[in-house]
Amino acid sequence: QVQLVESGGGLVQAGGSLRLSCAATGRTFSSRDMGWFRQAPGKEREFVAAINWSGGSTDYADSAKGRFTISRDNAKNTVYLQMTSLQPEDTAVYYCAVRGTDYRRSRSNLDSYDYWGQGTQVTVSS
Hints:
Elements: E1 3-7, E2 10-13, E3 18-25, E4 34-39, E5 46-51, E6 58-60, E7 68-73, E8 78-83, E9 92-99, E10 113-116, E11 120-125
Parallel strand pairs: 2-11
Antiparallel strand pairs: 1-3, 3-8, 4-5, 4-9, 5-6, 7-8, 9-10, 9-11
């Protein structure tokens, strides 16, 4: 069993930055890909970024490219999402997730993830 706890969300002005953290419990963290997703009010949950088990490969949604950086520290069982140049449209609840071992679905597909955190709110004011 894996448990995930996100932190680092908050209220920030447009153009500002935040770093989200996701601390995981469980022995499987270092062997699993991880992802960040977000869900704005009235919208479906969407992919933001993903990182492979070693940290050597990353994927980003077009909306995140050039502004967000995903990273991980397997010694600390933690994955991070550094967000810069935040805009009001980035306002959402951000979730981290552990990808399952069925690799037929891409890392951007939320159905490929089997453990989810409770989410952390990010609000960007204009």
